[in-house]
Amino acid sequence: MSSYAGDEVGAIVVDVGSHTTKAGFAGEENPKAVVPSVAGVVYEKEDKSKVSNYYLGLKEISFARPHMEIENIFDPESGEICNLDYMERLLNYIYDERLGVRTNEHPLLMTEVPTSSSQNREKLTSLIFETFNAPNFFLSKQPVLSCFANGKYTALVVDSGHNFTTVTPVLDGYALQRSVIKTNKIGGKALDDELRKLIVSKRNGKDILALHQFTKQRNTPLPSSKSAKIIESEIPGLTMSFNEYFKNRIVSDIKISLLRVAERNTQNNTSIPIVSYEMNDGIEIEIGNERESICELLFNEEYGIHKLSYESINKCDVDLRKELYSNIILTGGTTLIPNLPSRYEIELSRIAPSNAKVKPPLNTKQHSTTTSNPSGSNQTALAHLQERKYTSFIGGSILASLGGFQQMWISKSEFDETGAAQCLLRKCP
């Protein structure tokens, strides 16, 4: 808790991501709000340079509005803010609509990617103090917070999110910038792209339809979609970015439902059960060994997550490498795919030096103490999945609620006196 105007108030934690942004109060285990990191921007029909309205949050952007573009708040390549105006609107939405608090009454801890530029950090800090009038602010790198969430100060953090995968060594609570490796060749989107190609081929070249692109005309009172006639419809004025965004969400849902990582690298495993999946327009597709073969992208011998980990560790001092091999943290939505942690351990062990002991990732089921209680084991597994999904937020929640952390905040008076650059250099290097 932080002191403000003589009262104890809870800090706000905002974990920004290029795909989703998580927000909540310090001291809580999970975020209260998980918001798409996009803005629905409605342009004037006659003049595309003029904006008539903005929409934030999944409910608002899901409504099919003519001339509404779905635009990124963060650069999908770098993870940095690419539109400060959209960022301001996203924070306003989080404060007003999701958390219901005033911006000037709560300290704010925000996360950032380990490769954030100084210019971007300074602009964000100025926005927080000058526009939102926050009493205190702190900017922390996501891999460092992932370490705190797992009770570590030194570890190798492998973050595989939607748009890219980043491997960051952390030493004594500081990210080693020179050893960070990032790629957009693997991650949730890369898997989605491959899965979408497969789905279209199994639909005989017919593209996926988003829910707003068709209606069902039922011929019988039965609820089954097989008894309904699909009538494709086109709402005038809908943009390509709107249609594509919601088609991609359908693919992501299928990915979560069907894909899994092979326990070992086996080519054309025919023993995988074929699964039928009914698309929302009633067309059924069957997926067998592709459920695993698509995920082999994550273990590509050139840029797989094990290879990136190996290269990142090799960029560190020799004396640190053994400790990193035995303290690995997996985070990000892509790491939730079944069997990924155990396969990652196998592949990294295969290429690691003979004198290095690769231990199971810290926040995974196989790292936990086994239990004879099946329900207890399931609860442990679910807890680890939740932790991997929200690791940075959890770390920020822990950090911002520590009594010893309160002196680390950048105060409004410090910002006014020395400016963003000096404050960040001194307190958020």
UniProtKB/TrEMBL annotation:
SMART domains with a match to the protein in the record: ACTIN
Stretches with biased composition (Polar residues): 363-380
Positions of region (Disordered): 357-380
Alphabetical list of CDD domains matching this protein: ASKHA_NBD_Arp4_ACTL6-like
InterPro entries cross-referenced by the UniProt entry: Actin (IPR004000), ATPase_NBD (IPR043129)
PANTHER family: ACTIN
UniProt record similarity statement: Belongs to the actin family.
Protein name as catalogued: Actin
Species of origin: Naegleria fowleri
Lineage: Eukaryota, Discoba, Heterolobosea, Tetramitia, Eutetramitia
